[in-house]
Amino acid sequence: MTKLTLIRHGETEWNAKRRIQGQLDTPLSAVGRAQAEAVALRFRNETIGILVSSDLSRAKQTMQPIANGHRLEVLHDSRLRERKLGVLEGLYYAEAQEKMPQLLDVFQSRQIDAPIEGGESLREFAARVTDFLTQTASTYSGKHIVAVTHGGVVGIVCRLAKGCPLDAPQDSPIHNTSVRTFHVDGSEIRLLDEADPSHLPARLSMDDA
User: Fold this and answer.
1) What's the half-sphere exposure (Cβ side, CA atoms, 13 Å) at 124?
2) CA 14, CA 96: separation in Å to the nearest integer?
3) Are 59 and 53 in contact (CB under 8 A)?
4) Where would I find the beta strands (DSSP E) of the chain?
5) Reduced to 3 states, what is the DSSP secondary structure of residue 62?
6) Using DSSP, how many helices (H) and how many strands (E) does the chain show?
7) Which residues contact 123 (CB under 8 A, 6 or more apart)?
8) % of the chain beyond a pLDDT of 70
9) Which of 37, 82, 89, 120 is catalytic?
10) How large is the angle between the packed helices 57-70 and 30-42, nearest 10 degrees?
11) Contact 181/11 with Cβ under 8 angstroms?
């Protein structure tokens, strides 16, 4: 059985401004960098076998303080990227609602197979996340894997662990640098901790997009 801890990346300016990132490569904000340092302290006494991160900057920057504290190299895996949202990427949510309301609805209502121009369907997105889970848990069986990824990825894994359909609404918020822990045993995934924000001081615990 493999222990998998997923961390959503720290805040970016685009999160704060409600701008759709998808796979565009945006860095952490000052708040996000502080959140990254705080979550690293959360793991200072943890035994970690493997560190793996999405290859987007906001995830890599969130992982770096953890890696520094444990003196471990970080593996970068593009399967941990956020869902590719094609023509929606770079738009503010309000702008997308005005210009592309049908496509925004495909995204927000979690339509499983409906296409987004230039992007991934929800089913395609879930398939690559599942591929990461299966392959990584097998390769590092029995170890504690700590991964920094994105809100969409965390949401997919939570649904798999709870046996929920892909189009089920998210039943708890996925805040920046929130932590969730799972046990992975073959194709079975079990959620151990729904969300752990205890590492964040009040000034860094905020709603985000």
Assistant:
1) 13
2) 14
3) yes
4) 2-8, 50-53, 74-76, 144-149, 179-185, 188-196
5) helix
6) 7, 6
7) 112, 113, 166
8) 95
9) 82
10) 40
11) no
- Residues 154, 6: contact at Cβ < 8 Å? yes
pLDDT tens-digit readout, 28-79: 999 999 999 999 999 999 999 999 999 999 999 999 999 999 999 999 999 9
Look-up of token digits 């200072």 = 44
Q: What are the sequence ranges of the domains in the chain?
A: 2-83+121-204
Task: Write down the residue that tokens 């996340």 correspond to.
Answer: 129
What are φ and ψ of residue 150, in 5° steps?
-130, 165
**Beta strand 2-8 with 144-149: parallel, antiparallel or unpaired?**
parallel
Q: Are 79 and 129 in contact (CB under 8 A)?
A: yes
9 in catalytic set: yes
pLDDT at 209: 40
Q: Is the pTM of this model over 0.85?
A: yes
**DSSP class of residue 130?**
H
Encode pLDDT of 164-206 as tens digits: 999 999 988 899 999 999 999 888 999 998 766 677 776 666 5
CB-facing half-sphere around the CA of 20: CA atoms within 13 A: 22
The CATH T-level fold of domain 2-83+121-204 is Rossmann fold (3.40.50)
Tell me what percent of the residues of the chain surpass a pLDDT of 90. 88
